[in-house]
Known about the structure:
Number of helices: 6
Number of strands: 5
Number of domains: 1
Family: Belongs to the HSP15 family.
Pfam family, one: S4
Keywords: DNA-binding, RNA-binding, Stress response
CATH superfamily: RNA-binding S4 domain
Oligomer: single chain
Structural class: alpha+beta
CATH class: Alpha Beta
Protein name: Heat shock protein 15
Order of helices and strands: HHHEEEEHEHH
GO molecular function: DNA binding; ribosomal large subunit binding; single-stranded RNA binding
Largest sheet: 5 strands, antiparallel
Amino acid sequence: MSKAEKHQQSQAVRLDKWLWAARFYKTRSLCKEAVDGGKVMYNGSKGKASRNVELGALITIRKGWDEMTVEIKGLSEQRRGAPEAQLLYSETAESIEKRERRAVEHKSFGGRIMADHRPNKKERRDIQQLKRDIFSSD
């Protein structure tokens, strides 16, 4: 094992810092908001921004209607260029297939469904429940 690999394994990196370094979000505060808001799952459970990430862990990230599951391949606290950031993770095959299938479904609806009014409180609850059902069913 090389010296760089030993340093990388012994290095403790917070979840919000890793998400920022892997370029999923533009700022660390956005990372923290996403984690605290339940948009980021760490190994199948709700994550905490201060949690230390481990190599091989699965992270599920939800942005709007898109959801992706990535496996951690490397650790970094520093934000670098996109080619280096892509080396920190790899998306699972199931996640790629699910995102492509959802993109086709979304495109078949013409991008989005427009309503003639803003949703009221009950409609917002129904929309949120629908999103939870869609993301938890797959």
